[in-house]
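Continuing from yesterday's entry. The apo prediction looked reasonable, so today I'm repeating it with NAP included to see how the binding region is handled. Same sequence as before; SMILES copied from the compound registry.
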Amino acid sequence: MKVLLLGKNGMLGSQMLKTLSGGVDFEMYAFDKDDLDITDETALKSIFERISPDFVINTAGYTAVDDCETERETAFKINSEASGAIAAVCKAENAVLLHISTDYVFDGENSSGYREDDVPSPINVYGESKLRGEELITKNWDKYYIVRTSWLYGENGKNFIDTMLKLGKTKKEIDVVDDQIGSPTYTKDLCEEVIRCFLMPYVSNLPKQHDRTIGLGYDSSMKKLPFGIYHLTNSEHTSWCGFAKKIFELAKLDIRVNPVKSDAFPRPAKRPHCSILLNTKFDCKMRSWQDALKAYLAFF
Ligand SMILES: NC(=O)c1ccc[n+]([C@@H]2O[C@H](COP(=O)([O-])OP(=O)(O)OC[C@H]3O[C@@H](n4cnc5c(N)ncnc54)[C@H](OP(=O)(O)O)[C@@H]3O)[C@@H](O)[C@H]2O)c1
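Holo prediction written out below.
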């Protein structure tokens, strides 16, 4: 089984590589921009032909949400056209593609959250470019899983928790927005669930008692999921303000957190008010965002 990972140095990609490396003896191939620029179609074709992967995980992307507003062309090149090109080379090699997308494909006006089949309507360039990427994937290849997730944090990346903890060292009081709601998601949990639900059912030749496989969450009752779009996050939701309060509570820092509206922090890209992604397609085992946060903070 040949697994090819794109975006291996990113926040999610580096966790994916770590989680995969600690488990089954896949034949692993992992790349980032320096080894394989996904906007270079010739390089993509050549590497895919050489490896002929069975399963491709694409975590690469242009993720600077505010910069996308001024770097529209780059955003579309990386998040849209390159995603379509990856789907095309997957088709040529008959490889399953698992591609990571985002809550930002929705406008955030539905306060009950978004199902996988709700109609997307992005309100910023990043969301537009990610949605176009989804469309090009579905146009170019049938064997895809598009996994939308939200509010990621993890060990190897600049994230909200690290920003709060840094601020907590110098301030006694901070303002945090409370009119954006979503599910903070720990990259470790997301990677484990992606592997358990989407990848492992393809690893058919490993005996059930393979202890390293079990370590990766091998679940023999998990059948191959139908191709399509999925929503995957830690469970339950909160606002950035609620998230900040919980971070300080768990870190035992006595910081006053004041709820403010988004317009108190004007930014180039608009953010959706509601980023709740509903998983209506299978029994997701991801823990609550509070429990995940506790586990993440235990590293400090
Ligand atoms: N972070 C979130 O809160 C969040 C929420 C929902 C969905 N997502 C999605 O999750 C995925 C992973 O996000 P992340 O937070 O891990 O982002 P990240 O840390 O920015 O990782 C993205 C990786 O892609 C690489 N990359 C950029 N352009 C490339 C190119 N042309 N060729 C090859 N690699 C390239 C980046 O390399 P350089 O750093 O060298 O440019 C980086 O290593 C993305 O698809 C993102 O849209 C993220």
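Comparison notes:
- The pocket of NAP is lined by residues 7, 9-13, 32-33, 37-39, 59-63, 78, 100, 102, 130, 149-152, 157 (CB under 6 Å).
- The longest strand covers residues 96-102.
Will overlay with the apo model tomorrow.
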